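Inverse folding, one chain.
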């Protein structure tokens, strides 16, 4: 399982459990909170009505008094109200009054007059000077039919002479409870979705950074010249990347020096042996050389010395490039113009050989113009060196959506099979047909390094129609 997926699943589980817990906690509090608020209102209502009914109750005209008429008219009213989107076309408040013995003497619904309510908690507790309230279901098998009752004492002086109870069904509050619960769930789901999106982005950001480090480590393990990755707003990964970069430089530096010392030693053996042999003959005591022989031996020394200097210079150039892991001072480079400049520069060496090409398409990339010029020049110089007199070299530039390709096809002899896999090795070279001499064997290695610094690649292969084809691929910006 991918690291990013593990992080996301862990975050998803944590956020989901936390969201479910909070939603349940808040959801469990909505119904009690609404009912507590309703009870608060009923307390005030019961006490207000108890004060209003007290004169009629004491005067003994409760049945035909103003309060009884008002209660009857109240039960018949149509509020025509819309409370928070919920329509109200009738009243839900029930009022009943008991005497000091708990017998119902007035009921706004008319259903309980004459009944003994003395044992109901609302009446029982109120008659004893306590707060009386209860919730009782109308159908004992159905919890949704519960009705909240709140009572207030009717007093004469300090004596409790009766009880007034107001009752309201809890289902009348259910639409508001459900509305609040629905809003809570919607808000919770939205917050959960936002949290998961943030978690997903965080997981991707962290995983992307680790993936960049993994890609960097893999590239280093196969010897690719890649820049040390940098991470925005992630100091830990940036520090780790820098540490990996330093470790790479130390390890590469040690292997690099060992490899180059062995290669350089091997390549310098031949010219040094030639110089030493010629010098020993020139300075051998008692040996008199002809002028032509003297000139030949001194010329050989100069030639081998120049070859050694060329090897050292090219090797230093290659070492400098291979120590770099990114480009410097990049600029827009017109590849068509670059090809024209290289062809014009090598035209005097072409002799009877022809360099042909179709009109160039427009192609601009960002890079180091000097390095790109050197790379293309090395390939074209190689093509000239291995093309016979009166032969042709065809250069083609093509572009697709993501990259450009340069193909250089000459009419020389095919590359031997044993050499195809070694052409880009340092110090490996094939003899030139014209002179039979080998080059330093560093030109193609330099070319590959220059192109890889630009994110490109180069390959050499025998062409199906004869000759050899060099292909360069460079990414477009």
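Residues assigned per position:
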């Amino acid at each position: 399982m991918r690291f990013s997926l593990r992080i996301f699943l862990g975050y998803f589980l944590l956020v989901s459990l936390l969201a479910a817990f909070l939603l349940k906690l808040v959801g469990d509090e909505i119904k009690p909170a609404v009912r507590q608020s309703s009870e608060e209102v009923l307390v005030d209502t019961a006490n207000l009505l108890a004060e209003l009914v007290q004169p009629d109750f004491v005067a003994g005209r409760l049945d035909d008094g103003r309060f009884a008429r008002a209660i009857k008219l109240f039960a018949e009213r149509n509020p025509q109200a819309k409370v928070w989107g919920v329509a109200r076309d009738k009243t839900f408040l029930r009022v009943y009054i008991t005497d000091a013995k708990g017998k119902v003497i007035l009921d706004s619904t008319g259903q309980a007059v004459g009944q003994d309510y003395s044992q109901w908690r609302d009446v029982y507790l109120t008659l004893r000077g306590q707060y009386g309230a209860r919730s009782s279901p109308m159908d004992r098998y159905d919890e949704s039919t519960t009705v909240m009752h709140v009572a207030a004492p009717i007093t004469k002086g300090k004596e409790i002479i009766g009880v007034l109870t107001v009752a309201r069904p809890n289902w009348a509050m259910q639409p508001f409870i459900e509305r609040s619960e629905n809003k809570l769930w919607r808000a919770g789901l939205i917050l959960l979705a936002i949290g998961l999106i943030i978690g997903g982005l965080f997981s991707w950001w962290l995983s992307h950074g680790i993936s960049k480090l993994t890609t960097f480590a893999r590239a280093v393990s196969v010897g690719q010249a890649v820049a040390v990755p940098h991470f925005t707003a992630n100091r830990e990964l940036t520090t780790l990347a820098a540490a990996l970069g330093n470790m790479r430089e130390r390890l590469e530096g040690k292997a690099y020096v060992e490899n180059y010392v062995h290669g350089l030693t091997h390549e310098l053996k031949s010219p040094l042996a030639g110089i030493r042999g010629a010098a020993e003959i020139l300075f051998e005591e008692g040996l008199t050389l002809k002028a032509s022989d003297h000139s030949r031996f001194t010329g050989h020394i100069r030639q081998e010395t120049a070859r050694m200097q060329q090897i050292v210079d090219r090797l230093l150039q290659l070492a400098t490039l291979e120590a770099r892991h990114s480009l410097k001072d990049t600029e827009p480079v017109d590849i068509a113009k670059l090809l024209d400049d290289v062809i014009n520069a090598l035209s005097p060496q072409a002799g009877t050989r022809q360099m042909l090409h179709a009109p160039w398409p427009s192609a601009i990339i960002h890079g180091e113009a000097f390095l790109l010029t050197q790379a293309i020049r090395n390939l074209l110089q190689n093509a000239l060196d291995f093309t016979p007199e009166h032969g042709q070299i065809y250069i083609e530039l093509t572009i697709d959506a993501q990259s450009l390709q340069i193909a250089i096809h000459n009419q020389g002899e095919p590359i031997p099979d044993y050499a195809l896999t070694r052409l880009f090795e340092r110090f490996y070279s094939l003899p030139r047909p014209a002179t039979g001499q080998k080059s330093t064997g560093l030109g193609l290695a330099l070319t590959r390094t220059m192109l890889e610094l630009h994110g490109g690649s180069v390959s050499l292969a025998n062409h199906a129609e004869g000759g050899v084809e060099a292909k360069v691929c460079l990414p477009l910006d």
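Residues 3-59 form the longest helix (57 residues). The chain has ten helices and 14 strands.
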